[in-house]
Amino acid sequence: MPQPFVTFSRNVFIPLTNVCRNKCGYCGFRREIGHPEAKLLSPDEVSAILSGGARAGCSEALFTFGERPEEVEGFSAWLSRLGYDNIIDYLVDLCKLSLRTGLLPHSNPGILEKRELEKLKPFNASLGLMLETAGTVKAHVGCSGKIPEARIKTIEYAGELKIPFTTGILVGIGETWDDRLRSLKIIRDIHEKSGHIQEVIIQNFIPKPGTKMASFQSPGMKEMLKTVSIARKILPEDVAIQVSPNLIRPGELVRCGASDLGGISPVTIDHINPESPWPDVLQIQAEVDVPLRERLPIYPQFVKKRWYSDEIAPLIRRLCDTEGFRKAYK
Ligand code: SF4
Asked: Under CATH, which number does the domain 6-319 receive?
């Protein structure tokens, strides 16, 4: 049954650092320290991105970066030059900067301890961590952050803390169908206990040049349609299914149950998939059969339940309409 509308958010993508302790076989984003493109964005660089987003009418600052970069030799010296001894404290200050600029933060820092989630909660409208897969895949060999149990634990902690949460699976990274089903059922079970999952991303793997999986194939449309249809059957109705319109054409997937298109940025590229530009919102609208509706990085049901802190309440009130979606702006 098609949804009455499809949601998306207007965001800026902030790749805080591309240094990461993991070495996923499909990753084209990570850089070794010493590589000319390895970076940690300064507050001024982040501020410039945020200001550009505010001018373009964005409501979300998506902070995405490598996991626990402090475990990579040389990174702590970069952080300490900025006055920090860990990336989470730096992120908290950047989230505060984002709120001052008028954008609601949504951070994806990788697996976290409960105390780290507690630090981030007051300054984020929502947080995210892809489960990716509950299976054991070659692409994750040697990646300490890709142990499924550790990722599940982070998602469970977020539920205990009542943090609106985004998770998802990667399709085509070497997992089996059984892994996919198990991953979706795990997410369902966590949500049935804590009620905090707002969306599940069903993301198709795209091979990146220069990576171990450069010669692997993306899952085709047929496989993605099957995965989205099954996800819609497994997941509770209040959990949206998200597909990425810069990675796959969304029209048929929406007919199969996808109801969200994630963040679409008018000002920044998808730094994880830089070869895949965002389609224009009007272009997407021409492809899907139902109206597009803009939302905030916190879904309406969590706005209504007031699952947000006093720190971000004024900005949420300023940005959202009476139904909890994004208020029309000039
Ligand atoms: S995919 Fe994410 S976790 Fe894996 S190496 Fe790249 S940045 Fe790190």
From this structure: 3.20.20.70
Tell me phi and psi for residue 298, to 5 degrees. -110, 130
Cα 223 to its chain centre, rounded Å, is: 22
Q: Whose CA is nearest to atom 3 of ligand 1?
A: 22
Sketch the domain layout of the chain as residue ranges: 6-319
Strand 60-64 vs strand 6-15: parallel, antiparallel, or unpaired?
parallel
For the CA of 18, the closest atom of ligand 1 is: 7
Burial 278-291 (b: 16+ CB within 10 A, else e): bbebeebeeebeee
Q: Is the CB of 14 under 6 A from ligand 1?
A: no
Render 34-81 in DSSP notation, one character per residue: TBTT--B--HHHHHHHHHHHHHTT--EEEEE--S-GGGSTTHHHHHHH
For residues 306, 307, 311 and 312, what is the CA-based torsion angle, rounded to 10 degrees? -80
CA 120, CA 172: separation in Å to the nearest integer? 31
288 touches ligand 1 (CB under 6 Å): no
φ and ψ of 132, to 5 deg: 70, -70
Q: How far apart are CA 234 and CA 202, in angstroms?
A: 13
Q: Give the amino acid at 237.
A: E
Q: Using one digit for the tens of pLDDT, what is the confidence trace for 296-320?
A: 999 999 999 999 999 999 999 999 9
Q: Output the pLDDT for position 289.
A: 87
Phi, psi of 236 (to 5 degrees): -60, 155
Distance 119 CA to ligand 1 centre (A): 23
pLDDT for 266-297, tens place per residue? 999 999 999 999 999 889 999 998 999 999 99
Count of CB atoms within 10 A of residue 34's CB?
Answer: 8
Residue 183 near ligand 1, beta carbon < 6 Å: no
66 Cα: distance to centroid of ligand 1 (angstroms): 6
User: Can you state the percent helix, strand and coil of the chain, rounding each to 5?
Assistant: 35, 15, 45
Copy the structure tokens of residue 246: 């810069």
Can you tell me whether residue 302 is helix, strand or coil?
Answer: helix
| DSSP code for 204 | E
